[in-house]
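Please decode residue identities from the backbone states below.
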């Protein structure tokens, strides 16, 4: 069964489109993906279809009847429709020309130099796509005989048009028959090596840029074995089928997505925002989060080609901008925050339509206070019918927020419209199992938390990697020396400095100052959580250097290698909250995609957990 995106045919689809949707879904193998009404430039073809051993085809579906066609040229079709005794004349672009234009837009995009892995690198066809492509029209209410009788066969030839009787014969004919008929629409079919995973993902990312997770240099594995890899080529990582189906099928209204760490909640937020923004450039789209660094990272992820109608803000900068209020001299941040929220809520009945948004998407919603949601919902243009998406995970709540509230009490009308993502895409199996064992397995949640901020257990991890390591040190200086050695080892193994993060649970300035100075003796350091540092603050995310940050500042980010240091600072002795501290540890450990090491100096209730962790090993000198 093929993958259809969205995972159901929308009610707005015509009867003919629903029929074709069902045929593609039920008749094609599971390596085929078909999109219903994807955005191509400023147009929306009915279907695009892609498979690694098939190629790419664009299809347009028309439900016209033979008696309605009054005149046809290679440019346009004149239809006569009779309603209430009145004949109405409609002019349409010839669907063959229409679908060919769609394909030309796609192929022009695929021809850009950076997408070299999608082109033949040498030989007489050098520079041409390395897979076949085609286009066609499906006439769901006109038979081939009717075309012949109307003398329209030349304008609607069999190699470009599937008629109603042919469509009927394809039902139940088997996948080979359907594939053979679709291949007949290729202008120039040719044998080709099946596309690699990177090639398929990159085609998807080029066709639908809203599904791109990241853009990276292509490798030898990006092209078929033995094929030349051209310099400067890129490959895309994209949403998987399930994530994309969720992003495209949410529809209007309020929705909540609960997802485990690394399940792609942030990617889903970005994809959904781009889908809305690209479908209608007049719509105002707002993405909110709590973390400054995450907001900066979201802007960076969207890049320069981001739709101009998407606004990305961390919550406090957003409310400050909306209210125009600034922090007063000598005012505590808590007092300033209360003043901001009060001003926002007072303005609920006074916001103009120009102030409001067509869509609001909230990432890391478990870090929001109830009143913050009220601020957001008050600025959603269509209220309960407006487009709102909230992403959360109760296991990652760090700030001791008020958990005893219901979604409806803060204006979020999402009853019956929540989804759960339990597959982890970020971490290795070893890292995730270790993180859950030492940070989450002992947490007891109360009923209010389990209802509003769901704490999900990961059910599937796709990757494997090295076992996490840990090491306790006798002194802070000894720990810092160990961290410096580990950073050096990671660098020697080819891990880029910006992909190495040293995370600490609490900002004990003297201790972390010393660590930063030591690390800077051998390389650049971006101290993300220290705005006053000469090479720090969220602006440093765009700069090279090893990342140094509190876990709070690293929320929503990920790194190839993570050293979680100063574990002895947990639990927090000033604000005892085992759930919050366990969540903090969990968030920090799950920032690592491939390598994870935990260090500490001294001893605490949390360091005592590590020697009993079955999913990790003690770090010895022989492993350094």
């Amino acid at each position: 069964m093929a993958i259809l995106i969205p995972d159901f045919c929308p009610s707005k689809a015509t009867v003919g489109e629903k029929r074709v949707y069902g045929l593609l879904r039920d008749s094609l193998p599971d390596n085929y993906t078909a999109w219903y009404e994807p955005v191509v430039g400023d147009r929306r073809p009915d279907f695009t279809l892609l498979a690694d051993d098939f190629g790419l085809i664009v299809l347009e579906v028309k439900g016209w009847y033979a008696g309605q066609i009054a005149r046809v040229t290679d440019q346009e079709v004149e239809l006569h429709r009779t309603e209430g005794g009145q004949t109405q004349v409609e002019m349409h672009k010839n669907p063959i020309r229409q679908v060919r234009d769609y394909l030309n837009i796609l192929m022009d995009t695929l021809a850009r130099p950076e997408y070299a892995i999608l082109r033949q690198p040498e030989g007489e066809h050098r520079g041409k796509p390395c897979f076949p492509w085609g286009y066609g029209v499906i006439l769901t209410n006109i038979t081939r005989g009717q075309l012949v009788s109307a003398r329209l066969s030349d304008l609607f030839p069999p190699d470009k048009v599937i008629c109603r009787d042919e469509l009927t014969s394809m039902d139940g004919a088997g996948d080979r028959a359907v594939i053979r008929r679709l291949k007949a629409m290729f202008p120039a079919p040719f044998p080709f090596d099946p596309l690699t995973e990177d090639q398929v993902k990159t085609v998807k990312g080029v066709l639908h840029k809203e599904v791109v997770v990241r853009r990276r240099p292509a490798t030898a594995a990006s092209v078929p074995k033995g094929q030349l890899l051209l310099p400067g080529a890129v490959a895309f990582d994209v949403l998987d089928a399930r994530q994309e189906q969720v992003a495209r099928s949410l529809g209007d209204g309020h929705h909540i997505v609960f997802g485990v760490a690394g399940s792609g909640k942030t990617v889903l937020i970005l994809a959904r925002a781009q889908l809305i923004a690209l479908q209608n450039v007049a719509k105002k789209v707002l993405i909110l989060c709590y973390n400054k660094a995450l907001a900066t990272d979201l802007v960076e992820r969207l890049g320069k080609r981001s739709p101009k109608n998407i606004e990305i803000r961390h919550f406090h900068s957003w409310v400050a901008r909306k209210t125009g209020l600034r922090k007063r001299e000598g005012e505590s941040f808590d007092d300033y925050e209360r003043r901001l929220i009060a001003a926002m809520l007072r303005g609920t009945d006074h916001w103009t339509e120009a102030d409001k948004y067509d869509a609001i998407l909230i990432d890391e919603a478990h870090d929001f206070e109830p009143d913050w949601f009220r601020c957001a919902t008050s600025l959603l243009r269509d209220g309960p019918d407006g487009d709102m998406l909230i992403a959360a995970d109760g296991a990652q709540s760090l700030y001791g927020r008020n958990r005893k509230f219901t979604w409806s009490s803060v204006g979020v009308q999402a009853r019956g419209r929540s989804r759960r993502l339990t597959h982890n895409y970020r971490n290795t199996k070893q890292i995730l199992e270790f993180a859950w064992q030492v940070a989450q397995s002992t947490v007891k949640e109360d009923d209010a938390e389990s209802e509003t901020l769901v704490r999900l257990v990961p059910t599937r991890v796709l990757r494997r990697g090295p076992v996490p390591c840990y090491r306790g040190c006798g002194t802070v200086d000894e720990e810092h020396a160990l961290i410096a050695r580990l950073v050096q080892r990671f660098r020697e193994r080819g891990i880029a400095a910006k992909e190495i993060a040293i995370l600490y649970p609490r900002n004990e300035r003297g201790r972390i100052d010393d660590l930063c100075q030591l690390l800077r003796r051998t390389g650049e350091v971006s101290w993300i959580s220290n705005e006053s540092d000469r090479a720090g603050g969220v602006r440093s995310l765009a700069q090279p250097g090893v990342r140094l940050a509190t876990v709070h500042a690293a929320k929503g980010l990920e790194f190839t290698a993570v050293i979680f240091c100063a574990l002895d600072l947990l639990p927090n002795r000033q604000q005892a909250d085992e759930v919050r501290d366990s969540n903090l540890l969990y968030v920090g450990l799950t920032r690592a995609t491939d390598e994870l090491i935990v260090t500490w100096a001294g001893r605490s209730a949390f360091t005592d957990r590590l020697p009993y962790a079955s999913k990790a090993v003690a770090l010895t000198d022989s492993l350094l």
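Observation: The radius of gyration is 28 Å.
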